[in-house]
Every structure is written in structure tokens, then in C-alpha cells.
Amino acid sequence: MNMNDVSSRGLVLLGCGKMGSAMLQGWLRQGLSPASVWVIDPHPSDWVQGLAGQGLHLNADLPPGPAIVLIAVKPQMMQAALPVLAPLGNGDTLFLSVAAGTPIRFYEDVLGDQTPVIRAMPNTPAAISRGITALYGNTRTDDTHLRLAEDLLAAIGQTVRLDDEAQMDAVTGVSGSGPAYVFHLIETLAAAGVAQGLSPDLAMTLAKATVGGAGQLAEDADEDPAQLRVNVTSPGGTTAAALEVLMDADTGFPALLERAVRAAADRSRELGA
Q1: Residue 134: closest CA among 152, 119, 116, 147
Q2: Cβ atoms 123, 175 nearer than 8 A
Q3: CA end-to-end span of the chain, whole Å?
Q4: How many CA atoms lie within 13 A of 114 on its CB side?
Q5: Averaged pLDDT, 200-224
């Protein structure tokens, strides 16, 4: 199965909110025809309604055997929305879910245990094609299915494959919820600048650019982040003074982030139980 199959057999998008729309925009940019896409969404955006005028099938009868169904509804809407797609289960339609916290066994219970299902965990930078998505497929999926999912998810950023579905909870704690930690870092870094005499606007401009630039450097550089940190830390200098606070084993980032990621992962386990 490949993108040609998607074009000829069709792609069904269950839910087209922010994440679904970000993915659909990426696919359309890559040349997928709106006529190959079916969207099921009770409250479609003006943009999606506009695409319906270009051939996209909106809340219409579904094709008999679409190549892929992307599930992008909120978990609390899943119980009502998914049974509509049960007739497509136990076949060669691949179900790809980006819904947080919903385990593969739930899809197998509703759709049938012979249904190929891939669970994916993207994050919000997907909106600017800078996301990272972790993938795990059930026993009915093969490498072809995973490659197709990777091709589709490439529209919103990088992908990684997991060895075990249980790793999704840790992924949630690191990359799924992680953008919020970085946004809070920007908030607090700016506030600390204000406390040292900067105007709020200037402090926020500096904080945003510093975190954004450092993140890009960490991705692009050959050295790992620990070496990049060493590179900018002169012995006895200003950075060293700050890192003495931030790297404290009891009160600094190491203990704080370990607790934060554990809390998110624990909550993910509770929601998926």
C-alpha cells in the first residue's frame, strides 16, 4: 500500500479539527486531490467547507474500501463516532489514530481484531510541520502499513517507531505534553527578565527567540545538547552561575522534569486503563 493507493481508494478523516486540518493541509500541498478525501465532522470549519466545493466529500457516503481511515476526534467523542466505521473493520483498510490516550485494544473491540490499527502520538508543533509523532502498530500491521503511516505523518514533521505500546505513556510525558513545558519555560524566563529590570515586551521577545533558537541549534548541530551546554559555559562565568541553580540535583531541572514527566505518564496510564 502506498500514496497511489490512497489517491485511488480514498482517505477518510474522522474529525478535522486542528490536528486533522494540519495533516490535510500537508497532504494537499503534496498533491493529494480533495476528491480522494472523505471528511466526517459534525462541525466542519469554513476551510473544510470550502474544500467541499473543490471535490472533497464532506459528511457523505463513504467509499467501500478506503486505503486508510485517520481517526482525529477527541477521545471523549470516540464512543459515538467510531462505530460508524465498524463496517470497514476486519479488512485491508488501515486505521491510523492520533487520538490521545485511546489504546489499540479499544479499536480492535469496536472494529474487529483482524483490523490493521496504528496508534500515533503527535504533538502541537505539527501545526507548523515541526511536530514529532511516535507510532505503534498492532499484530495485523506490517512494514508496508507503517511506511504508509510515516509518509502521511511526514506532512506534520518527524516520526519514530516504538517497540511496545506501553511506551506511549512515556512519549506522552516527553513529547506529547512537552510543548507546554517549553511554553511555560518561555513564560517564566521572560518573567525573570522583567524582575531584573527589562520591559515585559523586550523580555518576552528575548525569551521566545532564545528558546526557539536554542531548540533549532540542538536539532541541527552535530554535538549533543550536553556538549552544546558545555560550549557556552565559561568556568566561573555568568552561565555557570545560572547552571549551578538549574542543575542542582534536588531543586533544579533534573528532579523537576523527572517529576513532571512521571506525572504526565502516570495520568496517561490512568486515562488509557
Answers
A1: 119
A2: yes
A3: 32
A4: 6
A5: 97
